[in-house]
From TrEMBL, chain A:
Name listed for the protein in its UniProt record: TRAP transporter large permease protein
Pfam entry (one): DctM
GO MF entries: transmembrane transporter activity
Keyword set, alphabetical order: Cell inner membrane, Cell membrane, Membrane, Transmembrane, Transmembrane helix, Transport
From TrEMBL, chain C:
Pfam families cross-referenced by the UniProt entry: DctQ
Compartments it resides in: Cell inner membrane
Main location group: membrane
Alphabetized GO MF terms: transmembrane transporter activity
Self-association and partners: The complex comprises the extracytoplasmic solute receptor protein and the two transmembrane proteins.
Protein's job: Part of the tripartite ATP-independent periplasmic (TRAP) transport system.
Species this protein is from: Pararhizobium mangrovi
Keywords from the UniProt entry: Cell inner membrane, Cell membrane, Membrane, Transmembrane, Transmembrane helix, Transport
Domain Tripartite ATP-independent periplasmic transporters DctQ component, residue spans: 28-157
Membrane topology: Multi-pass membrane protein
Name listed for the protein in its UniProt record: TRAP transporter small permease protein
Length: 427, 330, 196
């Protein structure tokens, strides 16, 4: 069945069927071809539950936040100010993409929301300084993956619940790898731009005077960031609620800048819904495809095969990584965790590994799945915002960052203590 | 036993529940095949295996997606108000009383399930007693006043508000961080489930205010059921009734085990010993009466309107009597 | 043709906007709730539920708009390398697949709506929302999406009969097709300037 599914997947993708439609067609085809149960009957119920999922509300809200910041000119001033300071660095604003992603990752539990926000605000910068478009959007997509590694994180909470692991400890464990990964992303940009200076865009003339003068432009985004992160960490709001506060704060700022007009809000809404509609069709289809793949027992079969093979500890880990790479072609990382983690974690723990460490490893595998072709949710989101060119640009653009992810996964495999150091301070 | 062979597609509960691990899995994968000499085989999956959340399961069962399914009764309360009437908060923390109420209402629930969803009821049992986990000092029921309590259904919200607390709506995935940061002061789950989900890391008072039992059922798609030979039906009904007993016993054990594990007193068998141990807050009989008063005033009168007079008199007669509560039919 | 096309486009854009305004409204409501709660005068906790309905509504009411904007992302590696005729055919197949998927979702959605109607289903919250309201609106969005995708497919098919590939690209192509058209225009302009 897997070869047929993979074949069909690539065939539908190759003839250019839209991603959401492709996933639903694949699901129905697998149901009619292989399933003894009439799974298609569930398509309505599952589409309703997935499209009315409160946890996803933060995605359009963050996009809206980005659109407002963009249309009020706040995002532009922010990037120009940052340019004054890091323009000398090979890769310039691409490092700002990583930094901004890191900041948004600390406010949002979802990688899709993080990637969508940053791609909306960064998009106008691409033409301005002559960066390689592929690398620029690659940095946006890569930065987005930080959303689920840096706390808060929906994936880590889910992992904690499925495996009875401490969520506060998982959150602590995610911080250091998150910072290191962001550093690796920046390092990739730096290395590539040193090797191929044409990718890194033009340098700008600046002086300390204009640097100092640019500082006030940093304040409005800082205010938004303070509202969102402050409301979460002071216990005023949950991450989902804080996205609402962020939207409101952005509207207030736009008003202060005298940019708040009905027309501006409508344009922001239009932009938001263009991306939201595209994402939600994929979400509905992906949910149903996940259901079909799970209900047919495919994942359960893989799980029990792994369990019965009696692998060495390292062999076990490597086969889990292989599963995530293969399943990552079809499935959204979150449901993928739900069907694999409860079965695989006990095996890994029995093999002598720490469950917190394994949680971080799993989330990193999810991050990888989010940006690897053919099905990489973040690639679709960024391409949906970009609205020009081919998605292949993105698939090529994220390659260097995939290397960074592989490097950090290797680091985590080799030095488990690095992950467990911060959580150990909790006790 | 000589019954014709049949393969059943069954969906169960959440993998993380003791009921699932300790009762359902052995029942479907061992007991049924063995007791039928291999005639009945089961394709059994958890909700996680299937990638579904739970509230949609009764509808999917009605469509014939599965032959049999486990479902949470109160999830369907929006479609049939009778289905929440075994999970009223503030009513009882006594599992024997709860079982008597469940037995009394079972025929009526079976009738509704058949008529509305096309599902035949096979068993009815609780997951475990739901209580409050709080991270503010609570030594009596009065201390709940002014706290922010995360609830997840109408009855809970009404009771909590009646007690002077604030009901907040937080998705399950955000409860632990929300408790840690103080977005919510208290949250509700079973004594055992909260223990294995490590809620004691973010809360320190286990308040034994009964918040319902999280009643679950097994049901069969009526069409598929009717196609089974009578012999098979009789066999299955007997087996399910046997499993139902085991589920009640498991629930009873889980309630106490959850308390033991959370408070670090007594033996902790299926959970995680809480460090630091939680403080157990039990209610005096005055406080229990007070909770029941709020229940009658805020929850039951509203429920009676939704459920209708037939439903109310059925409840009074079969369930209310057991606990000495009479709902007036207005 | 033009008139019908532009009114369908306008309706679709406004449906998407209404969905977006719903989401914006729920953001405001949730913010108010958060403020009241932190002041200790809460009592209101319906924002989360309404926001989830707003999301469902926004999701399906924006689908048709995204069709007009050609925003449903496609992998066009192979398509880009084909002859104009084959490219047009695959563009139409892509549009038709959206119509087909829209039909499947609408059909499933109708079942959800019917069941809620038959059972008089309400949400089990203090709001007690009759589910047919949000589900009905959600279903309407799916049906409109299906209709629009279908009409656009027919429209593109008539252009195929006439052999008008650039029109098909405008209706159904990926955005990268625009870049090429722009490049061509740019080139011609450049040449014209060169001739002067
Ligand atoms: Na995050
Ligand atoms: Na992938």
């Amino acid at each position: 069945m897997i070869p047929v599914a993979l074949g069909l997947l690539f065939a539908l993708l190759a003839i250019g069927i839209p991603i959401g439609a492709m996933m639903l067609i694949l699901a129905l085809a697998l149901d009619f071809g292989f399933s003894p149960m009439p799974l298609y009957r569930a398509v309505g119920e599952l589409s309703w539950t997935s499209s009315s999922n409160y946890l996803l509300v933060c995605v359009p809200l963050f996009i809206l936040l980005g659109e407002i910041l963009l249309r009020a000119g706040i995002a532009e001033r922010l990037y120009q100010a940052i340019m004054q300071w890091i323009g000398w660095l090979p890769g310039g604003l691409m490092h700002a993409n990583i930094g901004a992603s890191m900041a948004f990752a600390a406010t949002s539990g979802s990688s899709v929301a993080t990637a969508a926000t940053i791609s909306v605000v960064a998009k106008p910068m691409i033409g301005r300084y002559g960066y390689s478009e592929r690398l620029f959007y690659g940095s946006v997509a890569a930065g987005g993956t930080l959303g689920i590694l840096v706390p808060p994180s929906i994936n880590l909470v889910l992992y904690g619940w499925l495996t009875s692991t401490s969520v506060p400890a998982l959150y602590m464990a995610g911080i250091l790898p998150g910072i290191v990964l962001a550093g690796l992303f920046s390092a990739s940009i730096l290395i590539i731009c040193l090797l191929r200076p044409s990718f890194g865009g033009y340098k700008i003339e600046t002086s300390w005077q204009s640097r100092i003068a640019s500082l006030p432009s940093l304040l409005p985004p800082l205010f938004i960031f303070a509202v969102i992160i402050g409301s979460i960490y002071l216990g005023i709001a949950t991450p989902t609620e804080s996205a609402s506060l962020g939207v409101l704060a952005a509207l207030v700022l736009a008003a202060l800048y005298r940019q708040l007009t009905l027309r501006m809000v409508m344009e922001a809404v239009d932009g938001t819904m263009r991306t939201t509609g595209m994402i939600m069709l994929i979400v509905m289809a992906a949910w149903f495809l996940n259901f079909v793949i799970s209900a047919m027992g495919l994942v359960a079969a893989i799980n029990s095969a792994i369990a019965s093979m009696g692998l060495s500890p390292l062999g076990l880990l490597l086969s889990i990584i292989a599963i995530y790479v293969v399943l990552g072609c079809f499935m959204d990382p979150l449901p993928m965790m739900i069907v694999t983690v409860p079965v695989l974690t006990p095996l890994v723990v029995a093999a002598g590994y720490d469950p917190i460490w394994f949680g971080i490893l799993i989330v990193m595998l999810c991050e990888t799945a989010l940006i690897t072709p053919p099905i990489g949710m973040i690639l679709f989101v960024v391409q949906g915002v970009r609205r020009r060119g081919s998605i292949t640009d993105l698939m090529i653009g994220v390659m260097p960052f995939l290397v960074s992810l592989i490097v950090i996964i290797a680091i985590v495999l080799l030095f488990p203590k690095a992950v467990l150091w911060l959580p150990s301070l909790l006790n | 036993q000589d019954i014709p062979s049949v393969n059943l597609k069954v969906s169960g509960g959440n993998r993380t529940q003791n009921q699932f691990r300790l009762v359902e899995v052995p029942f479907f994968t061992k007991q049924l095949p063995e007791a039928s000499d291999g005639a009945v085989t089961v394709n059994f999956s958890s909700l996680e295996d299937l990638g579904i959340q739970g509230p949609e399961v009764l509808r999917l069962l009605g469509m014939g997606m599965f032959d049999m399914s486990e479902g949470t009764l109160s999830y369907m309360a929006g479609e049939a108000p009778l289905f929440e009437s075994l999970d009223f908060p503030g009513l009882t923390s006594d599992i024997d009383q709860q079982r008597k109420m469940a037995e009394g209402l079972k025929p009526e629930i079976a009738k509704t399930m058949k008529a509305k969803f096309g599902v035949k009821l096979l068993s009815l049992a609780p997951i475990a007693l739901q209580v409050l986990y709080c991270n503010k000092p609570v030594s009596s029921l009065a201390d709940i006043k002014g706290l922010k309590v995360r609830t997840f259904n109408r009855g809970m919200a009404q009771l909590v508000e009646g007690l002077g607390a604030q009901s907040v709506n937080i998705p399950f995935a955000e409860v632990v961080p929300a408790m840690e940061r103080g977005v919510a002061d208290c949250a509700i789950t079973a004594t055992s489930a909260g223990n294995t989900a490590r809620w004691w890391e973010v809360s320190d008072h286990l308040v034994m205010l009964p918040m319902g039992w999280s009643m679950i059922f097994f049901g069969a798609n009526a069409d598929n059921w009717n196609k089974l030979p009578e012999k098979t039906q009789a066999f299955l009904e007997k087996q399910f009734s046997d499993m139902e007993d085991k589920q009640w016993a498991q629930a009873k054990a889980d309630v106490q085990d959850g308390i033991n594990c959370n408070t670090g007193k007594g033996t902790c068998k299926n959970g995680i010993e809480a460090k630091p141990a939680m403080k157990l807050v039990t209610l005096t009989s005055d406080e229990k009466d007070h909770a029941r008063e709020i229940l009658t005033k805020n929850v039951l009168s509203d429920w009676a309107k939704r459920c209708g007079s037939d439903c109310v008199s059925q409840w009074n007669e079969n369930a209310g009597k057991v606990v000495g509560v009479h709902v007036s039919d207005n | 043709m033009g008139k019908i096309e532009s009114s369908i486009a306008t309706i679709s854009r406004w449906m998407a906007r209404i969905g977006g305004i719903g989401l914006l409204g729920s953001a405001v409501l949730i913010s108010i709730e958060v403020c009241l709660r932190s002041l200790g005068v809460g009592g209101l906790s319906v924002g989360a539920e309404l926001a989830s309905y707003a999301l469902a509504l926004g999701a399906t009411w924006s689908l048709a708009y995204v069709v007009f904007e050609r925003g449903h992302v496609r992998v066009d590696v192979v398509v880009m390398r084909l002859s104009p005729l084959w490219r047009s055919i695959l563009d139409i197949v892509a549009l038709a697949s959206l119509a087909g998927v829209g039909f499947a979702l609408s059909y499933g959605g109708l079942g959800v709506f019917e069941t809620s109607l038959r059972l008089d289903a309400h949400s089990n919250t203090t709001l007690g929302m009759p589910l047919v309201l949000p589900q009905g609106a959600w279903l309407f969005g799916l049906c409109w999406f299906t209709l629009v995708a279908f009409v656009r497919t027919l429209q593109a098919a008539t252009f195929l009969v006439r052999g008008d590939h650039s029109h098909i690209a405008r209706i159904a192509g990926t955005p990268s097709a625009d870049d090429e058209i722009e490049d061509v225009i740019h080139d011609t302009q450049g040449r014209m300037i060169g001739q002067e």
